[in-house]
């Protein structure tokens, strides 16, 4: 669906953000992209969506891509449903007027992210998390085959993070969408992704099956802090957290002792 071949990009001459990057997005598969701030994750997303021309290599896509930004200002007093309806733009008729079927599809997508009850509320007055979910609904309304999400859970509370991660997994499993998302949460990546792309500093990267890529050693190198993996086992579920060892508690107990 999407093939990235030997991709490379820089904004400052010879300061490569990434280089020699090759991977593919396939139907039903989820790829998580992780890396420190400024390593080029959003830049890579822009290249995938065709809004940035790479310095090296190529991206080829044979399917429509739905892009979900971290945030977007509406610019007008649109309702949440209007925002989702914008996702139908490419299907509108000659005079650009949405039909009943478009409105129904938009409402369906808003319901899918659990926000049917705020359909008539103004988008610009919603919370950051609600707006993020509306933008996901807007991408779904495009009926894309590839979904590209920039930190989809960054503004969401713990429960809604689970809602979005489950939804993303369902979209891959049931609708056979190819999905790529960026995240600063390795546990989110392990929870739903099939593959991980770790974008390290100095234009290096690690790409592979999720369990192989998200090791303590790789994550410690990626973020420059020691990272430990902790598995919490409940009745019918294993949840994994990757815990950075910042030394905060040790410092606090030393202060208490003195
Ligand atoms: N249009 C641009 N012109 C010049 N430099 C840019 C441009 N866009 C991004 N950059 C720079 O490229 C680097 C990578 O930016 P990018 O937004 O891709 O990082 P990121 O990995 O998504 O970071 P974060 O995790 O903080 O969102 C940054 O140093 C940024 O300042």
UniProtKB/TrEMBL annotation:
Record GO terms (molecular function): ATP binding; ATP hydrolysis activity
GO biological-process terms attached to the record: zinc ion transport
Signal peptide annotation: none
InterPro entries: AAA+_ATPase (IPR003593), ABC_transporter-like_ATP-bd (IPR003439), ABC_transporter-like_CS (IPR017871), Metal_Ion_Import_ABC (IPR050153), P-loop_NTPase (IPR027417)
SUPFAM superfamilies associated with the record: P-loop containing nucleoside triphosphate hydrolases
ABC transporter domain location: 2-226
Keywords annotated in UniProt: ATP-binding, Ion transport, Nucleotide-binding, Transport, Zinc, Zinc transport
PROSITE patterns assigned: ABC_TRANSPORTER_1, ABC_TRANSPORTER_2
UniProt keyword Transport, yes or no: yes
Family statement: Belongs to the ABC transporter superfamily.
Protein name per its UniProtKB record: ABC transporter ATP-binding protein
Organism listed in the record: Pseudolabrys taiwanensis
């Amino acid at each position: 669906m999407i093939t990235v071949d030997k991709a490379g990009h820089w904004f400052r001459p010879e300061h490569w953000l990434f280089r020699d990057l090759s991977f593919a997005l396939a139907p039903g598969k989820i790829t998580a992209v992780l890396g420190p701030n400024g390593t080029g994750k959003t830049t890579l997303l822009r290249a995938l969506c065709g809004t940035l021309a790479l310095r090296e290599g190529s991206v080829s896509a044979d399917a429509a891509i739905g892009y979900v930004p971290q945030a977007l200002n509406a610019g007008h007093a649109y309702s949440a449903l209007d925002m989702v309806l914008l996702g139908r733009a490419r299907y509108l008729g000659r005079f650009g007027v949405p039909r009943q079927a478009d409105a129904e599809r938009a409402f369906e997508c808003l319901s899918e992210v659990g926000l049917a009850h705020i359909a008539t509320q103004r988008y610009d007055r919603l919370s950051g998390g609600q707006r993020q979910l509306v933008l996901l609904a807007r991408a779904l309304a495009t009926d894309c085959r590839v979904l590209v999400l920039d930190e989809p859970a960054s503004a969401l509370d713990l429960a809604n993070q689970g809602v979005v991660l489950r939804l993303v997994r369902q979209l891959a499993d049931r609708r056979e969408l190819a999905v790529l998302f960026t995240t600063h949460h390795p546990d989110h990546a392990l929870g739903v992704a099939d593959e991980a792309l770790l974008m390290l500093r100095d234009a290096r990267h690690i790409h592979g099956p999720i369990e192989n890529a998200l090791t303590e050693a790789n994550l410690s190198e990626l973020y420059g802090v020691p990272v430990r993996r902790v598995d919490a086992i409940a009745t019918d579920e294993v949840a994994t957290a990757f815990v950075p060892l910042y030394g905060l508690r040790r410092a606090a107990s030393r202060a208490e002792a003195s």
